[in-house]
Specification:
The protein is an alpha+beta fold. The protein is 40% helix and 18% strand. Strand 3 and strand 4 form a beta hairpin. The radius of gyration is 18 Å and the shape is elongated. The protein starts with a helix and ends with a strand.
Length: 187
C-alpha cells in the first residue's frame, strides 16, 4: 500500500445540464460500481502528476405532465469520455473515484429533496429550480474539494475510511430521494 502514498490524484467534478455530442454517460446506480474500463478519456496533459481524473455531473430535465403537474428527472452521471486513468489500476484508487461519483448522487438526492419541499407554481417552477440547482452545485463543489483535501486525494488512509463511511451514511439518509424521476403537483 505504500506506493499509493506517492501518487497524486486529482478528481474534478464538473456539473452541467447539457449532454454534449460524443459524451458517453453512466447513470449512478446503487448496485453498479465504476470499473476502470469506464474511464475512456485520454489524459489532456501526458506528463500530468495526476493518476486519475473523474468527471461526474447532475443532469436534469423537466416538463409539464398536465396543467397542474411537473415531471422532473434529476440524475447523477459519470462522463466516460472525460474521465481517465493513466497506469494505477488499484481497487483502492478506484474506490476513491467511486466516492466522487457517490457524492454527486448525494447532491442529486439533495436537489430532489429540496425541490419537493418547494411551493411550486406554474409561474415560478423554472426560477425555483434554477436557484436550487445553483445552490446544490455550489455545495457539491465544496464537498468534492473537501473530500480531496481531507483524504489528500486518497493518500490519507484514515480520512479516506471516514469519508467512505460518511458517504455510505449520507446515501442511506437520503434513500427516500433515490428515484431520479418524480412528479410534483403545482400549487
Amino acid at each position: 500500500m505504500s506506493f499509493l502514498i506517492n501518487i497524486p490524484i486529482l478528481v474534478t467534478i464538473c456539473l452541467s445540464l447539457i449532454k454534449l455530442p460524443g459524451d458517453d454517460y453512466i447513470s449512478w446506480n446503487e448496485k453498479t460500481k465504476l470499473r476502470w474500463a469506464d474511464f475512456k478519456g485520454i489524459p489532456q496533459v501526458i506528463d500530468s502528476v495526476f493518476e486519475a481524473f473523474t468527471t461526474s455531473s447532475i443532469h436534469s430535465s423537466y416538463h409539464p405532465v398536465d396543467l397542474n403537474t411537473m415531471q422532473y428527472e434529476i440524475s447523477a452521471v459519470f462522463n466516460e469520455t472525460k474521465s481517465f486513468y493513466k497506469s494505477d489500476t488499484s481497487k483502492y484508487l478506484l474506490s476513491h473515484e467511486q466516492g466522487h461519483f457517490d457524492l454527486t448522487e448525494i447532491y442529486a438526492r439533495k436537489l430532489r429533496q429540496d425541490l419537493i419541499k418547494q411551493d411550486l407554481r406554474l409561474t415560478n417552477y423554472q426560477g425555483v429550480f434554477d436557484s436550487l440547482y445553483e445552490q446544490v452545485h455550489s455545495e457539491l463543489n465544496k464537498s468534492q474539494a473537501l473530500y480531496d483535501s481531507e483524504t489528500d486525494h486518497s493518500r490519507n488512509l484514515d480520512q479516506q475510511k471516514k469519508w467512505n463511511e460518511k458517504i455510505k451514511n449520507d446515501l442511506a439518509q437520503l434513500k427516500a430521494f433515490c428515484n431520479p424521476v418524480f412528479t410534483i403537483e403545482l400549487k
